[in-house]
Amino acid sequence: MAPLSEFLIFAGIGALAQLVDGALGMAYGVTSAGMLLGMGMPPAMASASVHYAETFTCGASGLSHWWAGNVQRPLFWALVIPGVIGAVIGATLLAHLPPLWIRYFLTPYLLAMGLFLVLRTTRRKDRRADVPPGTGVLGFVAGVLDAAGGGGWSALTVTTMVARGQEPRMVIGSVHLAKCIVSLAASITFLLSIGQSKLHVVLGLILGGVIAAPFGAWLVRRLPPRVSTLMAGLTVLALGIYNFYRLLR
């Protein structure tokens, strides 16, 4: 059994990632996976641990959005089917490629994701209720990158669709419900490919996320959106820089 101190470290990672996610509505996976990678955990194990935990955390969030009427069914289906296919492909690649190759991919991915969050803007003011062309492709790409990189589903899908003029409330609800299914698909693929993750890692991430969730909700009501976005982007960017430093050693 893992020492209590190690369990508390993973709970702290889950809590910090949930605070970022609560303040921004995204970036739980990429933040927690980046921290696990920074601790030296193999990429496949880090992504698997995050997705095992996200199956529970995103499930609760997605169902809450569904019950609140924040889910647009055509948008949900346009995202979830290609997203599941992409997640299976991404998890399979991550489980079978050499860890060093994956680190060479994940480091620029974290750097790019950090810059993406820092520089993202939503300029459009008009809102659209349809499902724009290319949404399925977006779901597939986000699914692949999310499973291979440990996170990034919401950061890619939410920002892209809101920037294209879709209603933020419906986008966030549909994305979170789809994320539950995508995480489950990635988790099953990881389970079949590499076996179970370390239980104390998954439980720590879940516990920390559950405890921090109310604080994240409190934080998002008080921080301006641009400030929370900048904070999340700088966090992920710092993780990418740290992993780049580790590659050079």
TrEMBL record:
Keywords: Cell membrane, Membrane, Transmembrane, Transmembrane helix. It is a multi-pass membrane protein. The chain crosses the membrane at residues 7-30, 50-68, 75-95, 101-119, 131-156, 176-194, 201-220, 226-245. Its main location: membrane. It comes from the Bacteria. The keyword Transmembrane applies. One of its GO terms (cellular component) is plasma membrane. It is found in: Cell membrane; Membrane. Pfam families: TauE (PF01925). Belongs to the 4-toluene sulfonate uptake permease (TSUP) (TC 2.A.102) family. This is Probable membrane transporter protein. It comes from Dyella psychrodurans.
